[in-house]
């Protein structure tokens, strides 16, 4: 990424902006291809060979094959596209959210039902940053 954005200072936040969209274009187009049943079948039959059809980077390829859900977001994936891989694997959004959070699907659901993750320690990497980056 070329320009430091104020929202890059928030831990665990991968904002899908125009630059991340450009970086992740091939990855997201691969994910969109999974809308078609025949493509899902081809991907399941040979994931590596199916990925060869798309000009993804080495790191994007690694994240897909390893099902590194957060990694996919870091390398330009959009959650609404990358979740198609999870659906292809028979996973739900809650399954993936739990994996991204380092907890089980059930623990993740309980956390969300209890009001979500505590903001303590999750606001800014830079302790001198203000609570509202624009104000």
Provide a descriptive summary of the structure in words:
The chain has 135 residues and is mostly helical. Helix content is 53%, strand content 0%. It has helices spanning 18-23, 25-33, 37-45, 47-51, 58-66, 69-74, 79-88, 93-101, 105-113. Helix 2 (25-33) crosses helix 7 (79-88).
Counting helices, strands and paired strands, the structural category is mainly alpha
CATH superfamily placement of the domain at 12-90: Dioxygenase LigAB, LigA subunit
What's the story with the biggest beta sheet? Answer: none
Mean pLDDT: 86
Please name the CATH architecture of the domain at 12-90: Orthogonal Bundle
Tally the helices: what do you get?
9
β-strand amount: under 5%
Rg, Å, rounded: 17 Å
Poorly predicted ranges: 131-135
From the 3D structure, determine the CATH topology of the domain at 12-90.
Protocatechuate 4,5-dioxygenase, Chain A
N to C succession of SSEs: HHHHHHHHH
N-end to C-end Cα span: 24 Å
Spatial shape: flat
The first-level CATH class of the domain at 12-90 is given as Mainly Alpha
Residue share in helix: 40-55%
């Amino acid at each position: 990424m070329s320009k430091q954005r104020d929202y890059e200072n928030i831990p665990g936040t991968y904002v899908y902006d125009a630059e991340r969209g450009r970086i992740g274009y091939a990855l997201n187009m691969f994910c969109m291809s999974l809308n078609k049943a025949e493509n899902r079948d081809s991907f399941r039959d040979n994931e590596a060979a199916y990925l060869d059809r798309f000009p993804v980077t080495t790191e994007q390829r690694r994240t897909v094959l390893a099902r590194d859900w957060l990694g996919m977001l870091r390398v330009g994936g959009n959650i609404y596209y990358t979740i198609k891989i999870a659906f292809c694997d028979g996973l739900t959004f809650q399954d993936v959210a739990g994996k991204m959070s380092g907890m089980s699907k059930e623990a993740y659901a309980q956390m969300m039902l209890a009001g979500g993750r505590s903001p303590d320690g999750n606001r800014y990497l830079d302790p001198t940053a203000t609570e509202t980056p624009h104000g």
